[in-house]
Specification:
Elements (H helix, E strand, L loop, with lengths): L7 H26 L4 H26 L4 H22 L3 H18 L2 H8 L3
Helix pairs in contact: 1-2, 1-4, 2-3, 3-4
């Protein structure tokens, strides 16, 4: 049984989500390290860590043709758009706009035919 190569949309989506995971981990560590209120930062950091973990699981599942990967990734991308818009409008466009663009691009990629076909296949 030979495996077909991954479609470009799957590779690009997986790479972008992996970039999000790395960014979340970076902001988690830097936020906790530089926080004045360690308890509050720990709660936010734990939330970011859980989001990064779930996105990481989504990327692995996407690579393995698992249909649930789309839902797992999409949920956090919709949250990313909402959070990014709120961040941009609250005076931090350098943080908010890239989040909106990245999450929006991933949402669009999640509905491309190659990715839909890929997640409907069994491995």
């Amino acid at each position: 049984m030979s495996q077909q190569p991954l479609p470009a949309a799957v590779k690009l989506t997986g790479s972008l989500v992996a970039l999000e995971v790395l960014a979340l981990l970076f902001f988690t560590v830097s936020g906790v390290m530089t926080a004045d209120d360690v308890r509050g930062a720990s709660v936010v950091g734990l939330f970011f860590l859980l989001v990064a973990l779930s996105l990481g699981i989504g990327v692995v599942a996407l690579w393995k043709h698992r249909p649930f990967s789309r839902a797992l990734i999409l949920v956090w991308q919709f949250f990313g758009v909402v959070i990014g818009v709120q961040t941009a409008l609250s005076g931090a466009p350098l943080y908010g706009v890239p989040v909106v663009l990245l999450s929006g691009a991933i949402i669009i990629l999640m509905f491309t035919q190659p990715l839909l076909h890929h997640t409907r296949q069994s491995s």
